[in-house]
Amino acid sequence: MDHDLSQTISLLTRTPAALDALLRGLPEAWTHRNEGKGTWTAFEVVGHLAYGERTDWMLRAKQILSNRSQPASDLPAFRPFDRLGQQRESQGKSLSNLLDEFARLREQNLAELHAFHLKPADLQLQGRHPAFGLVTLSQLLATWATHDLTHLHQLSRILAHQYRETVGPWSAYLGVLHCNGHSS
């Protein structure tokens, strides 16, 4: 499927409500347990998404747009993203705080993205990722939406994991209990 900015925005718009519907009001027994050593809780996932809204997607999009006249060889690299930054940023917050913060930040970021009035040619502008090298704005925006979907998938796994033993023999038919990794 080719990248379609309006469809990307449509997906990005839905994530806060999906998270809210899935997680708000659940007991901490559900939201503060993980899938095992080295995996995240639902609370950490929401914190990660909020942290990314503040420090990643739009900053990189703005960098690409502000460097549009530079040759690819002169493009500065994006600042590396701290994939665990939510650990310090979420301290002292409740899951409700994080859900509200994420929704507010996402709304602001999408309003700013819309205000860019991006044209198809803009989507081909490049930036320099510190690990991947040259990437396009189109790839960045498509990755933003896919990143959301990855974490929605992860949240389903985390929650289902809490009933891994409780479902008994039905676990053989529950694919979510057999999906490996991608927790971080």
The appropriate CATH architecture is Up-down Bundle
Q: Tell me, briefly, the overall form.
A: elongated
Task: Please indicate the percent range of residues in DSSP E strands (runs of 2 or more).
Answer: under 5%
Largest pleated sheet: 2 strands, antiparallel
| DSSP helical segment count | 7
- The computed structural class is mainly alpha
Strand order of the largest sheet: 1-2
| Fourth CATH level, the homologous superfamily | dinb family like domain
The string of secondary-structure elements, in order, is: HHHHHHEEH
User: Would you count the extended β strands for me?
Assistant: 2
For the termini, the CA-CA separation is: 26 Å
